Amino acid sequence: xxxxxxxLEKNRxxxxxxxxxxxxxxxxxxxxxxALRDIVLKKEKENPDFDFCLKKGAxxxxxxxxxxxxxxxxxxxxxxxxARVVKKSRGKIITLDFxxxxxxxxxxxxxxxxxxxxxxxxxxxxxxxxxSFENTLIDLYGARRDLAKGLIKIVHRKSFDxxxxxxxxxxxxxxxxxxxxxxxxxxxxxxxKKKLSGIxxxxxxxxxxxxxxxxxAYEIIEQLDKYDxxxxxxxxxxxxxxxxKRRLYRLDVxxxxxxxxxxxxLIIGRFNRNPGVKSYLGEEISSGRKRAELLKxxxxxxxxxxxxxxxxxxxxxxxxxxxxxxxxxxxxxxxRLKLSNEELRCLKRIVFLHLRPGYLVxxxxxxxxxxxxxxxxxxxxxxxxxxxxxxxxxxxxxxxLLDKIRKKYERAIPRLLREYFVKQKxxxxxxxxxxxxxMRRFKLEPSPLVGKVLRELEELQAIGxxxxxxxxxKSCAVILKDI
Length: 483
Known about the structure:
59% of the residues lie in helices and 11% in strands. The protein is of the alpha+beta class. The chain has four domains: 147 residues, Beta Polymerase, domain 2 (2-Layer Sandwich); 84 residues, Hydrophobic Seed Protein; 186 residues, Orthogonal Bundle (Hypothetical protein af1432); 48 residues, no CATH class. The strands form four sheets. A seven-stranded mixed β-sheet has the order 3-4-5-2-1-6-7. A two-stranded parallel sheet has the order 8-9. A hairpin with a 4-residue loop joins strand 3 and strand 4.
């Protein structure tokens, strides 16, 4: 098996260090779970992670591994004997988890694994001995069979009782590998889903972002919604579902939201052929979570402010200020999911400004000043906001104003996107004057007024109204006179 041979060569040095310690301590060590699954699937992770199990003493053994490798060490679950070693090597982060058998024997341990596709094991010593992969593999519960079928199936009936997070993991594995969830597994998901309320938000977040990282996140989110699991994560959507469509040709708020997510994925798929856009969407915002995933989350919550701002005025549905309230609620959602401060800031800005491109398009003329102000306010989220605005427009029907300007919208938003990515490559223009110049010329003390003047000068410079230091200082006089 050529893939296995290449995989082993890449990891041989690491495995030898672990195995030599297991021989010294007279411990029989097994490689289990995801690493073996990925070999069968011929998949390789950018940052590898390996799960090992042994009869007992996993915490003390993994501590010794960490000391030998000069790596990080953390106890994950003292009661069940589970610890983690984290090693940085050649720009990669390698994670090694060690755990005690979950039963008296290896067979019982594999029985208590989450899904059949993760229920394989192989003795580490035999892996290193040169034996064939097939001969080293222990597959008692049909892992290879279900991998061949592309099926996610629980190993035993109490799998979700042992760890309710496995409910989310079933969907994240489905998203990552494109597998179907077994019908009986769906039945147990439906029976046990309320147990997710006892799981930490950090763990739920990690599985959710695995789903959002998939190009088919919409399909998985739809399944989460079908089984009422999405409302356990986002209780805010209950109110969104209550606002029903008022006309046959309009979608309700939640239907529109889901269609926006679907269109986001279609747009990302098309724009990903552009290296600049692909690089932008692939930027890591925090802890391995990327801009594209945060954009999909923004699509799910961009109209979360609509239920509280719903009004009917002159037989017209209005949601005045829903973007402002939505940004606040999105911030609460980000905090609940334990996202980083940077992710929270990005999510709030995307939701708050998601209508702004539409205002630009509906103006009689798209002025340089209006564009400058949008890009200034949107900052690094400008690309995400424009993509969301385009998906939002494509998911909206029956609004007369938007129907009238739809062609203009379809021309203007991609043009603004191109302009944004061109600007990304340009070096920021040097200021013609600084705060000291302004204070010296006009005998001002340091104050917010100086900052306001500099911002207005920056705008005039960006739209080509001033080009020299003297022109800038003349404009300062006008600005200060008008304040």
